[in-house]
Each structure stands twice: as C-alpha cells, then as structure tokens.
Amino acid sequence: MSARRQYALSSLSLRSLTTDMLKPSAIIAEDEAVLRKALRTELSRLWPELDVRAVAKDGVEALAQFERHRPSIIFLDIEMPGLSGLEVARQLSGRCHIVFITAFDAHAIAASEHGAVDYVLKPYEEKRLIMAIGRVRDRLSEPIPPIDTLLRDLLASARPRSYLHWIKALNGAFVEIVLVEDICFFQASAKYTGVYTSTAETLIRTSIKALTAQLDPDRFWQISRSTIVRAESISRITHGFDGSMQILLKTRPERLVVSESYRSLFRHM
Fold first, then answer.
1. Does 111 score more than 80 pLDDT?
2. Under CATH, what is the fold of the domain 3-157?
C-alpha cells in the first residue's frame, strides 16, 4: 500500500473517531421494559443523531453501564428497585447531564425549577420529550453542573408511597368495599367515576386525576383523560390503520380507546 493511501485511510479513521467522540451519547435507566423500549424508539425518532449506547433495568446496572460507556447524558428513572434513580444521580452528579424520568409531578416540578436537569413524565408525551431534548441539547456545550442541592431536596422529600389497596364504592343504597386488584378499569362520566371489575360495575366520586396520584403507576395505566386501566387485565392492544389504538380486556367486553397523548406507552405492544 502506498504511503499516500495509508495517509488517506489514517485521516479517514481519525475523522470517523473524532465524529464518534463528538456525537452525543446516552444510556436509558428504566425498570419497565415497555417504557425502556418506548423511550429508546422515541429518542431515535426525535433525536436521530443521539447514540443510545445501552439500557439498564435498575440502579446498579445503570452505574455499571455508565462506567462502561461514559455517556454524555443519562435518562434516569427516579424510582427503580435496588438503587433508586436519586441515589444513582448523586453518584453521577457533575459527571453527565441528567434527564429524570418520573410519574410524579412533584419530582418534575423540583427538577424543572432547579434548571440544571430536565425531566420527562410517564407515560411519555411527545411535546414534553421534545422540550427536554431541546434543553439538554443546549446544555451539551456547557460544563456539567453539580446537582447536589436538588438531590438533597428530593431525597429529603421522598417518602415510601402507600398506594390504594381498596376503595369504597356506591352500590345502590350500600357502600361496597372493592379491592383494587379486582378492578379492570376506571372510567369517568359526568359527576362520577365508574369502577369496573370482571363481574360488577359501581360508582365513586373520586376523579381520574385524584386516582392517578393514588394508584400504583406500575399496575394502573392512564390511557386517556377519562380512563385508567389495570395492566394485568389487558388481553391485547389493537392498532388501526389511522394510528388509533384500542385495548381489549381479558374478562370484560368493553374496548377501551387509547387517546393520542398516551399511545407511546403502547406503541411497541
């Protein structure tokens, strides 16, 4: 091989290496497999130049993947088993840009007010994800700020969450106790919210918004402004040619419509 050709190949390899080094990179740490896959796909679509180098299903794996890949960004679920996202963030403070993944508005508000990190809410909404991408893009050229103050505030305010295990529902002139594990879905209508089990229908006065804050988000998924479905009660999801989605249940005949804002949660199912 001629010296000129060797020089040309060396220059090409160097340019490729430099391009790879300058390309923004990330890892995703999220304990729900469906949400991990959904976020990776959405990032690929909305930020195609981002190199997602790995995913992690818990905090311990997230730290190991960070040390292996040294990404410039981590998308980090706040609540994960073993080692929480907040504990991971404390160890990574000042070492990479952090985008928190959370189902709770209180965490999101604190992250947003701090300004050094961003957040996305579960289930993912395209508008919020685009905003987070834009903000973290702008920060990539800046020094990575430590977030110790924010983490202290979040860790101090974090408390073990106690989710609903049963609810009181109206059944004619009686009040009925319904275990949440028996509920297939909730659906709001007029002044009440319907509670649907496999064999019965009852009413409660609690709003869908209030229920969302009281139910375990890993088990109960909001699919529209008026409907929450228990994940274990889902039989399958159907996809229409127009992009529409409907959920079929194992023990009830209703077909629940997934509104456009919530479809990303089910896109890969």
1. no
2. Rossmann fold (3.40.50)
